[in-house]
């Protein structure tokens, strides 16, 4: 009689499923125990860090898609826009991707900004204002126009955005673009 003694190599399906179940339980417990920040808990520093990360993501998206993106700034928040073709022609449309979600800081933070436009953009705007009066527009609804453009090359205009808490509850944070490629977060003492 021959005995067929086979050595088993690798893992059985049951062992793999048990390990996957344990890893799944650990991951689920971590998700439920890590506190998520609500809008009321957002500080100027975390808001500036969030926008910095979103701008980096937007730069990458603009380069991959070879299509400009824009940032529409408002006193109570901001929203990313994408230049895309619609039935009415090319228009700025709200970006719905999770990584570029609109931020609403109403009653929690306020935003103030300064954007340094390149000279050719300022000249183009001046020429456009001279040639076209507001009555020349045939559009029924106002199209949102972003203040900050993210070009398909990934470049940005120089800008500074201040995130301030109401009643000076916390120190302000600034997101500053010193050049077309670098952004940094600064406090009130380091804004220059």
Structure description:
- The chain is of the alpha+beta class.
- It has a single domain (about 45-130, about 145-190), classed as minor pseudopilin epsh fold, CATH 3.55.40.
- The protein has three helices and nine strands, in the order H-H-E-E-E-E-E-H-E-E-E-E.
- The protein has helices at about 15-35, 45-65, 120-130; strands at about 70-75, 75-85, 90-95, 105, 110-115, 150, 160-165, 175, 185.
- Strands 1, 2, 3, 4 and 6 form a five-stranded antiparallel beta sheet that branches. It has a four-stranded antiparallel beta sheet with strand order 5-7-8-9, covered by helices on one side.
- Strand 2 (about 75-85) and strand 3 (about 90-95) form a beta hairpin.
- The chain is extended.
- It starts with 12 loop residues before the first helix and ends in a 5-residue tail after the last strand.
- The mean pLDDT is about 80.
